[in-house]
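User: C-alpha cells for this complex, please. No commentary.
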Amino acid sequence: MTWVTLGRGRLFFVLLMLPAVVYVVAWRLAPALYTIWLSLTQYNIVYDAAPHLNRLENYRRILHDGSLSEALRLSVIFAVIATAVELAVGLGAAAFFDSDPPGRNLLLGIFLLPMIMAPVVVGTVWSALFDRTVGPIPYLFDVLHGPDVQWLGTPVTAMSGLIISDAWEWAPLAALLLFSAMQTIPREQHEAARADGASSWQLFSRIVLPQITGMLVVAGGLRLMDAFLELDKVIVMTGGGPGTSTQLVSMYIYKQAFQAYELGYASTVITVLLVLLAVVYAFYLRHYGRMLRLART
Amino acid sequence: MSVSFSLNARRHLTVAVAATVLVVMSVGPLQVSRAAGVTTLTFLGPKFDEWEAFIKVANAMGKDMGIEVKPEYLPWEDVFKKALIDSKSGVKTWDLVYAYNTWVPGIAASKIFTPITDFLNKAGNKSLVRPDDFIKETTAGLEFQGKLWAFPTLAAPYVLGYRADLLANTDEKKAFRAKYNYDLAVPRTYKQLLDVAQFFTRKKGDSVGGKAAEEDFYGVCLAGKSGGFLFHRYEMVLVAFGADLIYNQATMQPTVNSKESIAAANYYAELHKYQQPGSETHSGGGTQRVFAADRCALTMDALDNILSVAEVPNLSKIVGKVGYTLLPTQVPSRPHAHVADANGPGIYALSQHGDQAFQLLARVLSTEGTKELMKEYPALVPMRASVINDPLIKRDYPKMVEAMNAVITGKPWTIFVPPLKEWVQAQEIVENAMSATLTGQKTPQDAMNEAQAKVVELFKRAGYIK
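Assistant:
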C-alpha cells in the first residue's frame, strides 16, 4: 500500500504514525539537537545566566584536552577487557548449563541474579568486598597468606576491581544469550558427533561454537558499547581514582557537567563521543555478516 | 471500511485523550500538603545524623508555630546540584536547603538562596537572632559579598585527635625517648606529628600501650577518597607549610609547584606511609570508624566527625581515650593553620514560605534550640558563644567545649576556601596529583609540576592570566 492508494485512510495513517514520530523527535532528536547546540556555547550553569555562543572554542579545547584522551584510552581498555572476561565466563557458564546439570533452572536463576541488580548496588557490594579493613577479600588473602593487595588503592588493582565487578554483573547476560543459542542446536547433532567418536572439546569447537558465533558477536557488541559508557560503579567504587587511573570517559563527562558545571564543554565531549560511537556502530553493523562468515570458517 | 476506521480511530483517540488527562490529573504538580492551620516546609539536605536531628527538633519546636518540616535527603555532594538545577528550572518545592561554605559563592552567583541578611534587615528580626552571638571564627565561610547566606548551625574546625592513653603510657614514652631523643607528647609541629605517626605504626601482635595489637596498628588515620576528602585533609598541611591555596589571590598566579607546596606534598606523601591502608577509598566517616576501632594513634579531621564516632559507646572502642587539640604548626607565622568549614540551612529563593522558614530557623538555632539539637546530636559543634559558655553544656559536653575553647583561645591561623568560580576544577587537579603521588605513580615534584601546568591552562582559559 502506497501513500496514493491510502486515500481517505491517510488521516488514520498519520494518526497512527504520530506517537512514534513525536516520541522520536521529542525524546531522542530534540535532546540530541539541544546538546549539539549547547556544545557550541560557553555555559557554566552556576555563573552564567544563559548559554552564549563561543563558536568552535569547545571543539578546539577538546583537541588539546589530555585528560579526555586519557579517559578515552582507559574506557577502551576497560571495555575490551571487561567484555572479553564476560564472554569467556559467559561461554563457560552457558556450556555448563547446556550440559543439563541437576537443578539447572535453580542454578541458572541464582547465576542471573547480579544482572538484575542496580549497578550502584553492585558497586557498593564490591566496594565493601574489597575494603581493606572490613572486606572479606583482603581477609581471605590474609588468611591464605596471599599477597597484600590494595584492591582499590593502586591504579592497576583498582581497574581490575572495576573489571571484576563488571564481569560479575554482566557475565550472566552473556551466559543467558549464549545458552539460548546453544539450546537451539538440535540434540541429534550432539548424538551424531558422539557416535562418530568426537571428544567434548571437538564437540564444542566443531559443532557448538560455529553455531553460536552470531550470538557471541551480538553479545560482544552489546557489552562493548555498554561497558564503554560505564559510570555508576566507577562513581561508587573508585570515584575515578586513585589519581585519574579509573576516570573513564563517562566519569569525565559527569565531572565536567556536575562538578565543574561546564555544561557547554560537557555537551561538546558528548557530541564528539556520539559521533565516534556512531562510526564504530556503523562499522560493526556493516561488517557483522562478514565477521560471522569469517568466524564460521 | 474507511467510515468504521475513522469511527474506531475517533473512539481510540477519545480514550487516549481521556487517559492522558487522568494521568496528568492524578500526578499533577507536586504540591506540599497543607493540613488546616499547619504550614509544611520542605528541607533539602544530606542524610547526616545532625540534619536528621535538626528535622526532629524543628518539628518539635515548630508545632506551636503551626509549622512542620518534611525532609528530602540526598547524598551530600548532590544537594547543591539538586538545588541549583531545581532553581534554574523554576521548581518551587523547597523552603530550606542545606549549604556548605565552599558552595556559598556559587549559591550567591546563581541566586539559589535569599540571603539571611535580607531577613535580618526586617524589623525585629535582628533581636530575634542575635547575630553578635555567633562565633566569628566559624561563620565567615557562610558570608559572601557582605551577606550571610546560610544560618550558622554546625561548625567543623579541623583538630588533631590523639590517643591520650597511648601518649601517656610510660613504656611508650621510654621507647619513644630512646628512638627520637625527645619526649613523647602531643605533637605541636608537623615534624613531631610524623615522628609520632611513625613510632606508633605497628604490626598485628606487637605491643601497643602494653597490649598485643589484635590487628595492624597505624600512626595516623586520614581520609583519602577522591572527590574532596583527600584535598580537604591535604590543604591543612598545605597552608601550614606556608603555601597558597592553589593560587596567589593577589596576582591570580597558580602556585601549585611553589617551594612551599612541594614541601607540603613531600611531607604528606611521607605521612601516608603511616596511614591506614585503603585510605584512598575512605571518606571522613569511614576513617573515623577505623580510628574508633582502636587502630590508629592520631587523626586529623573535623571535630564533629571525630566526636560523632570516637565518643559514641556503641561505635567506638576508645571512648574517653581521645584528646583534642589544634592542628600542629609548621611555619611560625601561621600557628595551627587550618582551612575552616561551616554548615547551615539557607532559605531557597523560590520558597513560598520564606518568612516562616526564617522564623523557624531563628527559633531552632537560638541558644535554647541549639541545646535541644545537641541532645539529639551530641557531636554538634555549635556556632553560638552563648551555647559554648553555658554551664550545662560545659558539664555535659566537656570534650567539645575543650576543643572549641582551644579554637577560640588558641586563635589558629584560619582561612576559608577562596570564592573562585573554577575552584572545584582547580581543587580536583591538585587532588588528582596528590592521589597519584600517594599511589606511587608520580613523585610529588612531577605530580605538582603537571598540576601547575593544568591550573595555569585553566586560569588562562578563564581569563585570569595571560
